[in-house]
Amino acid sequence: MTVVTPLRYGLNEADGTIDGTIGGRLLACDPPGGARVVEAFGDVVTADHVAVLVPGNGHHLGNYFTSTEAHSPRSRGQLLLRTMQEIAPESRSAVVVWLGYHSPPEWYNAITNGPAYAGARDLAALTHYLPRAAHLTLVGHSYGSTVAGLALASARAEDCVALGSPGMGVVHRSELGSRTRLWAAYGETDRIRLVPQVRLGRLGLGRGPLHPELGATRFGTGDIPGHCGYYTEGSESLLNIARIALGRYDEVTNASGPTRRRSSLTTSARPTELEAAA
Q: Angle at CA 202, nearest 5°, toward 197 and 208?
């Protein structure tokens, strides 16, 4: 069994500019040849609101800085920060892209929850490293939502957003802790919903966030493509993610309009359209 060294978080300068876009600062990074990297966009030290993005399978240090595609974790982090700033220019916002685990290389490797369990502790540790005064939101996409779900038992987060989740890693609501509101989104053409939501030891990714036992609040996505469209620029999905991260719950929409936030805190056939990098 490979021993995974816990991440050590710190604020280090990084050349985070791609084609003039928002630059970032490294919070943690494996040596060359490693897999993990954690980067912050915006000033996390003074931020009122911090969103932590947890990517799904297919991402690692080797392609993190070189990929400039719209679905890359860096591009998503930069876009979410811009969207938060446009919605609430009076607030201080920051986004952390947390690729702090060994994500499964392909979607068919993601039937086991081992990588999610291994990364959950480091993700939870990050939430306690970030300033306690900030409103903190975890945003997990695909397998990243499994990591986020497993981290919630010991993480500090006001909100957790699950995007195209194959399962939150848990079976019972009590496994999610008691401090976090749970939100979920599934695009109309996202076939991730066809994945069996079970957990048998290290196999399976647990129940989906919309299972009655977990009780997430579902929000609208609009017309987004497939499994990787949740961060589409200008989409209802992206706007809702930003609204939740800013604590603007009354502005979050479902399929038919504004939706009310739950009053209580939640602890609440093969997917052919899954891209290689979710």
A: 20
Q: Are 241 and 161 in contact (CB under 8 A)?
A: yes
How many angstroms separate the Cα of 201 from the Cα of each of 19, 76, 146, 176, 244?
45, 32, 14, 17, 33
Cβ contacts of 19 within 8 Å, gap of 6 or more = 68
Q: How far apart are CA 188 and CA 57, in angstroms?
A: 21
- pLDDT at position 276, please? 38
The Cα–Cα gap between 180 and 150 comes to: 13
Domains and CATH numbers, the chain: 23-258 (3.40.50.1820)
Where the chain has pLDDT below 50, the residues are: 1-2, 14-21, 257-258, 260-277
State the number of CA atoms in the 13 A half-sphere of 134 facing the CB.
28
Q: Which two tokens stand for residue 52?
A: 């932590």
CB 244 within 8 A of CB 192: no
69 forms beta bridges with none
C-alpha pair distances (Å), 218 with each of 49, 103, 239: 21, 26, 14
In angstroms, the Cα distances linking 231 to 2, 34, 102, 120, 228 are: 33, 27, 22, 23, 8
Q: What does the pLDDT look like over 33-67, one tens digit per residue?
A: 999 999 999 999 999 999 999 999 999 999 999 98
